[in-house]
Amino acid sequence: MQKQKVIEIPRLNTPTVKVKLECIHGSTLLMQKMSEDIKKELDEKYGRTGKSKLKGRQEKKQLTDKDVVEGKTWKTSDGKIGFPASGFQKALLSMAKLKELEGVSGKLISGSVKILGNIIPIKYKKTVVREDWGKASGMTGAPMKILRPEFTDWSCELQIMYDESMISLDQIINLFNKAGFYMGIGSWRPGESGGGNHGMFQVVVK
After folding, report:
1. Fewest CB atoms within 10 Å of the CB: 11, 109, 191, 203?
2. What percent of the chain has pLDDT over 70?
């Protein structure tokens, strides 16, 4: 009688650690939850920039600056200011995909490092309404006011799960620091086309 072969399945060792991040040298966080196209559609629909497109007896609603800023602000399920975990994950992936970075890859990071949660609560010293001017889409390219919520002295804490057989915690910390400097999160971050120096972060060593 043939002996039955026993298959041993190695157990994954995936610890969860807390990593605290803080802004680099006063780099503020700019949020832009709604795209400018969506904002323009809402403005046209509710009469902020033109006639309302609503028909019948429906009344048009005038969007205030407060409404616009509120619509661009990410919040947790319990109403706290936050930022999507996917934004931090994207910063890591973008950094890992750079050819100049050795030892890790985008494929490795996407498979072995997970940032848990949906919207990460953000702590900050104060918030202001930042007002800039840009050009509307379309043939006219008319000037338009762009409002964004801006947060100063911000920080957050991430819950990270990783496969330590594939990547070390030291590698993750190093990658976060590089991603915070080169990529960042939010609007006008270093990693976006024509970006600036907003949304930059670094790991806080306890």
Report:
1. 11
2. 78
Strands of the chain (E only): list them: 16-23, 29-30, 82-84, 113-115, 119-121, 126-135, 143-152, 155-162, 201-203
pTM for this entry = 0.79
Structure tokens that stand for 39 in this block: 């904002």
The per-residue pLDDT for range 166-205, each reduced to its tens digit, is 999 999 999 999 999 999 999 999 998 888 999 999 999 7
Half-sphere exposure of 203 (CA within 13 A, CB side): 21
Give the pLDDT confidence of 38-55 residue by residue, as tens digits.
556 556 655 554 444 545
Residues, the chain: 206
Exposed e or buried b per residue across 40-66, where buried means at least 16 C-beta atoms within 10 angstroms of its C-beta: bebbeebbbeeeeeeeeeeeeeebeee
> Does domain 16-47+63-203 match CATH 3.30.70?
yes
Residue 12 falls in which region: left (phi positive, over 0), alpha (psi -120 to 50) or beta: beta
- Candidates 14, 31, 54, 68; CA nearest to 152 is 31
Instruction: In whole angstroms, give the CA distance from residue 153 to residue 51.
Output: 40
Which one-letter DSSP state was computed for residue 202? E
